[in-house]
Design brief:
Elements lengths: L4 H4 L6 H11 L6 E7 L6 H14 L2 E2 L2 E2 L1 E7 H4 L1 H6 L7 E4 L4 E4 L6 H14 L6 H7 L6 E7 L6 H17 L5 E7 L4 H6 L7 E4 L2 E5 L4 H12 L9
Parallel strand pairs: 1-4, 6-8, 7-8
Antiparallel strand pairs: 1-5, 2-3, 5-6, 7-9, 9-10
Helix pairs in contact: 6-8
Amino acid sequence: MEYDIREIFEVSFSKEDLEVLRNVLSGMKNPVDVLTFVGDICTFCSDTVRLIDILSSLSPESGENRLIRHHVFHYKKDGAETFRRYGVTRVPSVVLLDGQIRYSGMPAGEEIRGFIETILRISNGNSGLSEKVVGLLNKIAGKVLMEVIVTPTCPYCPYAAFLTNMFAFEAYKGNNKSIISDVIEAYENPDIADKYGVTSVPAIVINGELEFVGVPDETELLSKIYEKSQRAPRYRHY
């Protein structure tokens, strides 16, 4: 089946879709800051900003604000240092948790589901990971970058992205900035997929090496992260 790439990234919701999204987001308890990074030469930046604006408008109110607090940064206006601070090298990018969770490319199509679930879990403070995994995860000090290669048409990609996001979330909760989840949209970033020889998605790259094609269980991912962290620079907890 052939897809029109432009249609995949088009931000278009029916009234029924909007009501479903509003109901889902009504489960939020605490505010979540969502940072969108854009630039002048960027095919899907305006679509990404519009998508997050819509999600923000559908999230519960908190005083004069919404629980999804959307912040937009433009390279020309806000400068390279702002982008470096959050580990952003491409536009559009969407950032959560001070850069511990990143979406390099628009979270479009199927990926919206995992993105919204990630926001909900952050808002409610519950990753859903087992206590055993969380306990072991918080002991990892070596730096770990998980790059999840996805496409908007892949039905399994949101599960892989959500899993790595929750690993990064639990580390963040423990003031451990050693673990980063970067969800990379392959249509917008084909050079990254090509660099790792990715021919099927979802694919999970850890510290520059392709480790999983498909969705691993949390113990498999933890084992591989631990292995990689032993050969990586150490992160100091402050």
